[in-house]
Write a structure and sequence with these properties.
The chain is an alpha/beta fold. Helix content is 38%, strand content 21%. The chain is built from nine helices and 13 strands. The chain has a five-stranded mixed beta sheet, sandwiched between helices. The chain has a five-stranded mixed beta sheet with strand order 11-10-9-12-13, covered by helices on one side. The longest helix is centred in the last third of the chain and has 25 residues. It is globular and about 60 Å long.
């Protein structure tokens, strides 16, 4: 069975899959069917051993996946896609910088292509790659314009346009977490003060709730449960996250005019505890803007792998693998 390798590299772990398609394989300009996860696996990045060890772990993991595909599906993978955090030069295939992984200017696409026998390889930014999957086959399916915003340790965004995700001129498009929503407010590691992610990320809510309840292990999920039980401190902390989030989202929708606004990440797991007040807060703030559909992400933690698989399949619709040299 024709398939591709998909790798989603995080700060501490890697998720991977061998991805096939539900319909005809992409050839002759025919669009592939829905992606199918044929095999899934996870590994640690080994980041405690340094950035070179992380790169070795990625290459070794990819080689293992290639071997698995050959054994179980009768042929090696036709292409590979990999999603990584930090600053990514997708055009040149370079993982430029990632604070969590400690690397700089890693030519990851070429390294993977060599290790995998010269097959075409696509390199993508983790959030944009997850957004690609949500836009094409997840919560944004059918929307010509969408914005995907995962609320996790930080906040980022993926701007979807007609089935693709916009990277921007320098690879920084979609960094909604660094919109200043509270001028002069909490310092952010980016160097600004009052950035959205300092108030509305899952990490920010976890920190505020842990301080309020006196339990250093408490997190955003615990805060959401306390909100549903009517705890006034939890309700206050939750609203202190929802309000700046709505401010940031209205700024984004004023600029981008998306048809669908997809909210994912840890904070979105609170369901309507988040979405009901968030929809109300956004509705109260819009004036001339058109209100988009505000929906939860659909793919969970498989979005990165599925998106990496889509990047790989896209290579096969435009590239003759025999012409690719590592």
């Amino acid at each position: 069975m024709r398939h591709v390798i998909a790798l989603d590299v995080g700060g501490t772990g890697m998720k991977a899959a061998l991805v096939g398609v539900g319909g005809a394989a992409p050839s002759g300009g025919t669009a592939p069917g829905p992606p199918v996860l044929l095999h899934q696996a996870r590994r640690a990045t080994g980041r405690e051993r340094g950035p070179d060890a992380v790169v070795d772990s990625i290459l070794d993991f990819a080689a293992e996946l290639r071997a698995h595909g050959e054994r179980h599906f009768g042929e090696p993978a036709a292409a590979a896609g990999v999603a990584v955090p930090g600053i990514v030069d997708e055009t040149q295939g370079i993982a430029a910088y990632a604070a969590n992984l400690g690397w700089r200017d890693v030519p990851l696409r070429d390294l993977l292509a060599r290790r995998l026998g010269g097959i075409p390889v696509a390199l993508g930014h983790d959030v944009r790659t997850g957004g690609l999957a949500e836009g094409r086959i997840g919560a944004g399916k059918g929307a010509d314009r969408f914005l995907f915003v995962p609320l996790g340790t930080g906040i980022a965004g993926a701007i979807g346009l007609d089935g693709r995700v916009e990277a921007g001129a320098h690879g920084f498009a979609g960094e909604i977490g660094h919109i200043v929503v509270r001028p002069g407010g909490t310092p952010c590691p980016c160097g600004q003060r009052g950035c959205l992610e300092r108030y509305a990320s899952a990490a920010a809510v976890s920190e505020a709730w842990a301080a309020a309840c006196g339990d250093p292990e408490a997190d955003a999920a615990d805060c959401a449960k306390a909100v549903t039980s009517g705890d006034p401190n939890a309700v206050r902390i939750w609203q202190d996250a929802v309000d700046p989030l709505a401010d940031g989202l209205v700024t984004a929708l004023t600029l981008l005019d998306p048809r669908t606004l997809i909210i994912g990440g840890g904070l979105a797991e609170a369901g309507e505890t988040l979405f009901t007040p968030l929809r109300d807060a956004v509705r109260q703030r819009v004036t001339f803007q058109k209100l988009p559909s505000i929906v939860p992400a659909a793919l969970g933690d498989t979005a990165g792998c599925l998106g990496a698989g889509l990047l790989a399949w896209d290579l096969l619709t435009t590239t003759d693998p025999s012409e690719v040299t590592a």
